[in-house]
Design brief:
Blueprint (H helix, E strand, L loop, with lengths): L3 E4 L11 H8 L1 E9 L2 E9 L5 E8 L7 E4 L1 E2 L9 E8 L11 E10 L2 E5 L6 E6 L22
Antiparallel strand pairs: 1-10, 2-3, 3-7, 4-5, 4-8, 6-7, 8-9, 8-10
InterPro entries: CBM21_dom, CBM21_dom_sf, PP1_regulatory_subunit_3
Pfam family, one: CBM_21
GO molecular function: glycogen binding; protein phosphatase 1 binding
Length: 153
């Protein structure tokens, strides 16, 4: 089976206590991520400071020797709190994510009303590493009749 990306952080920060307060305080926070065959999919929550806003994810697979940026798209309807918006992203990692030694790092950028806010996991960036999937363990072959009772007369 192909390797998968394993987050080195809780993959559902939006489910942790105090998440809404962190969004209010920092203006932008990663809500969740999920590794898929197409790449890394996730959602970001931002404080609704103005109608026009741009959310993107800057990422690298080579320790920032180079990087790419993927735009996040607005996801209606917005969260029920009325003060935040949700944006979704997909980092198309392709063949690079198929290597078991992949190390992905990313940070989220939120540009609104002439200001720029970042969520970089408290200065550590969000990190994921490639991990080879373990195939199901193959035990010794089983005799289909091994559990059957044999009765001799």
């Amino acid at each position: 089976p192909p390797p998968l990306l394993e987050p080195l952080f809780p993959p559902q920060p939006g489910a942790s206590p105090g998440f809404a307060e962190r969004v209010r305080q920092h203006k932008v926070r990663l809500e969740w991520v999920r590794a898929e065959p197409a790449g890394l999919r996730g959602a970001v929550r931002v404080l609704n400071l103005a109608y026009e806003k741009v959310v993107s994810v800057r990422y690298t697979l080579n320790a920032w020797a180079s990087c790419a940026e993927a735009a996040a798209t607005y996801q209606p309807p917005g969260p029920a709190d009325g003060i935040t918006d949700r944006f979704a992203f997909l980092l198309p990692l392709g063949a690079a994510a198929a290597a078991a030694d992949t190390a992905l790092e990313f940070a989220v950028r939120y540009r609104v009303a002439g200001a720029e806010y970042w969520d970089n996991n408290e200065g550590k960036n969000y990190r994921l590493r490639g991990r080879q999937r373990v195939p199901p363990a193959a035990g010794p072959p089983q005799d289909p009749d091994s559990s059957a009772w044999i009765h001799f007369i």
